[in-house]
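Side project, low priority. Logging it here so it doesn't get lost.
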Amino acid sequence: MARTWDLGGWALGDFLTTLFERRRAGDVSASGKPLPELCRALLSGQGEVSGMKRAAEVLMRYRQADAAGKAAFFRFLADEMDLDPAALTKAAQAYAKGRDARHLSTLLEAAEPPRQELLRRLNQAPGGTADLVAMRVDLMAAAKAEPDLARVDLDFRHLFASWFNRGFLVLRRIGWESPANILEKIIQYEAVHEIQSWDDLRRRLEPPDRRCFAFFHPAMPDDPLIFVEVALTRGIPGAIGALLAEDRKALPAHEMDTAVFYSISNCQAGLRGISFGNSLIKQVVDVLGREVPGLKTFVTLSPIPGLVRWLDTQDDSHAKALLADDGVAPDADLLRAMAATYLLEAKAKDGQPLDPVARFHLGNGAEVHEIHANADLSPKGRAQSCGAMVNYLYDPARVEQNHEAFASVQTVAATRGVKALAGPVKDRKEKGRKDQ
């Protein structure tokens, strides 16, 4: 019988593959040819081995280039590696006249910019996937200065959406016994509640009432794509301090009835726009439901990162009172009411909620369940939301209905209590206008 060795959740096969690819990645001899010439040679070649070597050299030369060299490479992709509009028009007209497989094949080939095939071939190099993800970070920065490069980014996003399809992702639990390099990445990538030390990380991973799960891709086995930290509690918490306290005691398993997703961090800036969070939460809910049968409630304890920015745009006394830097804690009732108004009514130009965390959870079918003042008293929490936080509830019986309503007409699902919170603010504003 074949035996599967496991290294803290990482299969021996993954370890050996990674080791082998790193060794091969270093075995590249530079030819000295310009990057465009190397790319043309890569596209024209047919041999798999020689193609991998050329791809590795292109990626190595790109990594060594300065900012100007990288920008020039992106302009090469945008201009020389663009599709041919005349050929596309001709192919489309031919297909309109004769809708057969031959004409369709010609049309599809004409509709794909050559840079897509170049990226596919670069992806064949050892470590190529991670290199391309990092390359997109540079591309997005360059596109801010040169908007024409945005069409190159469309090809990156198109390919990444396929390469990082949910079917390729692997869910792994991160524990205190996980490899040190993975734990270092968790500390590095934590984007919601900073991990202060290794002891802090241990408190989030080791106790039996704490969990951490991450998605990995087989081509990047030692670098998480996204991870979620979970607290198993009795009841729904209204403040982050108690969840992260140094002296808290672990909750016995028989008392756990609520899973609290208190931190979700995207790890790869180069995968911006490629969504994993919905799949991650759904799968973690399924795993936890099987591991801890007593869990009945699945909620978040989330920041409200755009609240202070929005308050700063509101020309009324309520907002000014909350933003006053007078050393006095903001009025809790007013803060909750203004936060409810922000989450339910503040919209971006496309009709989506202004708050990015709200967009994420509401788009996944959650509802705004409760808002808490004095919930995050850290400097970051005070700076972004005056200390307010929100619970988004994932009710399995209503998730699909909430998702459909949000996707079709941007309906924000919320409890009656949250809706009632926003009412007094409206009434006070209306009364103020009438008194003027």
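Brief comment: The longest strand covers residues 258-266.
Revisit when time allows.
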